[in-house]
Amino acid sequence: MWTGVVAHLNEPEPPEPERGGAVNRYLLAIVEVALAGPCGVTTRTRLRCRRRPGRRACEGALLVRRHEVPAEVQWGCPLCRDHGRIRGFVPKAKPKAAALMGG
Ligand SMILES: [Zn+2]
Question: Which of 9, 19, 22, 49 is the most exposed place for a label (fewest CB within 10 A)?
Fold first, then answer.
């Protein structure tokens, strides 16, 4: 389980090292998609799970669920059950609705 706080959303280059930066981008992508969707509803996204159980890339598509109070995004992979929650994000740009799956 990951509990992420996206603290550097408005900075062009996060100060984290390479690996942490990649994770931060992953969490940012999750937040971005979640913000495009409705509140309190679990939504399937096009974001691929990052886990590699047994050294094979997980093929799960992440599910996200956004809460307004407190502002929080919960996400999870239906295949490998990796999941986490993200807080501390600030919506910056217009969300990309195209990243959401239809239906
Ligand atoms: Zn997975």
Answer: 19
